[in-house]
Write a structure and sequence with these properties.
- This protein folds into two domains: 243 residues, YVTN repeat-like/Quinoprotein amine dehydrogenase (Methylamine Dehydrogenase, Chain H), CATH 2.130.10.10; 122 residues, L,D-transpeptidase catalytic domain-like, CATH 2.40.440.
- Helices cover 7% and strands 36% of the residues.
- It has two helices and 27 strands.
- The longest helix has 20 residues.
């Protein structure tokens, strides 16, 4: 009996060492890139926490560039890297990317219409500082690479360089918001709405649309064939709809993540890129890119153009204020004062007017000696005299996400 106990005692450390020595495999990053037809999948790098892919542009050599909301550009498959806006001071998140047909440069565009140029892509103008009615949702380069168009969610089109203005939907009633655009080599451009509606301008031929089709997921963008004689529409769930001579080569892979970008490649293929997706926006909270604030729930949602929630968190406001309705961000201040007792607030984003003072989102107020008036754990209840208090990380996120003109919807 004694010998057997010694054997077990000697064996136990050895068995434990085996358990310790076996490495635990890290969870693999999800595959966020689908290549269809002759397109080549060169991968999609992991992104920093909180960032997401917002666009993709094909390079003439078969590679491609991926753009993130944080201004990052990721060159894949031999596409040349020309720079990024990640370290630049930006007033709003990036929403799209367009490349020169020669592949020697590209542009990034923010939701505020700011344009960032890299390589031989010339900066030909932008809309930064303009009071836009709706956010910019897409961008397309001219066939020469010496111009570009920007499109806003209400269908407004803005032309720069040798991009000829051929019309827009600004001022027209739309059933669904515009979510993207594409330009054929023949001239002109198409706009596409989230319900699949396609609108043709200039020399861009109308080849059909998904308007009236029961879609399982909203359309997020479009891409054109090299000859401009067809186009693909991509839906958030990976669905692909083809028109003209654009060939169907398969839908996106099943995924819990949302497709956020589509581009065509040489030879008739196409690429789809996905990003982490959140829950759907609250019912009855409007449409398009917006901030949603529920007064009864004391919760905020940042809703992207596709209708997916990009961030949600608890806040502390005042019961019954402001009134239900749709507002717009009209002013921002890095630091502001409550007007009494030395209390200050940072990252103020104003969107409504109270009886005497403005109402906005800001971080938790601090007293004159720098102490916060409440903790993050206290968020979720009525604690404010009018404004909407946020945790520091959430206040920073909203500050970057919501430029002046951003829609704010207050619900009850």
């Amino acid at each position: 009996m004694t010998t057997r106990r010694r054997g077990v005692a000697l064996l136990l450390p050895f068995l434990l060492s085996l358990l310790v020595a076996v490495p635990v495999a890290a969870a693999a990053d999800p595959d966020r890139l689908d290549a269809r037809g002759l397109a080549v999948d060169a991968g999609a790098p992991s992104l920093p926490a909180g960032d997401r892919y917002v666009g993709i542009a094909a390079a003439p050599n078969g590679g491609y560039w991926l753009a993130s909301a944080g201004g990052g550009v990721y060159s894949q498959g031999g596409a040349q890297f020309h720079g990024s806006a990640g370290a630049m001071k930006r007033s709003a998140p990036i929403i799209g990317i367009a490349a020169r047909p020669t592949g020697d440069g590209y542009w990034l565009v923010g939701v505020d219409g700011a344009v960032y140029s890299f390589g031989r892509a010339a900066h030909l103008g932008g809309l930064a500082g303009r009071n836009l009615r709706d956010p910019i949702v897409g961008m397309a380069a001219t066939p020469s690479g010496n111009g570009y168009w920007l499109v806003s969610a209400d269908g407004g089109v803005f032309s720069f360089g040798d991009a000829a203005f051929a019309g827009s939907l600004g001022g027209r009633h739309l059933v669904a918001p515009i979510v993207g655009m594409a330009a054929p080599a023949s001239g002109g451009y198409w706009l596409v709405a989230s319900d699949g509606g396609v609108f043709s301008f200039g020399g861009a031929p109308f080849l059909g649309s998904a308007a009236g089709t029961l879609l399982a997921s909203p359309i997020i963008g479009m891409a054109t064939t090299g000859a401009g004689d067809g186009y693909w529409l991509a839906a958030g769930d990976g669905g692909v709809f083809t028109y003209g001579r654009a060939r169907f080569a398969g839908a996106g892979s099943p995924s819990s993540e949302t497709v956020t970008g589509v581009t065509a490649t040489a030879g008739g293929g196409y690429l789809l890129v996905r990003s982490p997706s959140g829950p759907p926006a609250p019912i009855g909270s409007g449409r398009g890119r917006r901030v949603v604030y529920s007064n009864p729930l004391q919760r905020v949602w940042l809703v992207g153009t596709s209708g997916q929630v990009e961030r949600t968190y608890l806040v502390s406001g005042r019961k019954g204020e402001p009134a239900v309705g749709t507002y717009r961000v009209y002013s921002k201040s890095l630091v502001t004062s409550a007007g009494h007792d030395g209390i200050t607030m940072r990252k103020m984003v104003r969107f409504a007017h109270g009886d005497t003072l403005a109402i906005g989102f800001h971080d938790i107020p601090r007293s004159a000696d720098g102490r916060p008036l409440q903790t993050d754990d206290d968020l979720g209840g009525y604690r404010s005299s009018g404004c909407v208090r946020q945790g520091t990380n959430d206040a920073n996120a909203l500050w970057d996400w919501a430029p002046i003109g951003t829609t704010v919807v207050v619900i009850y």
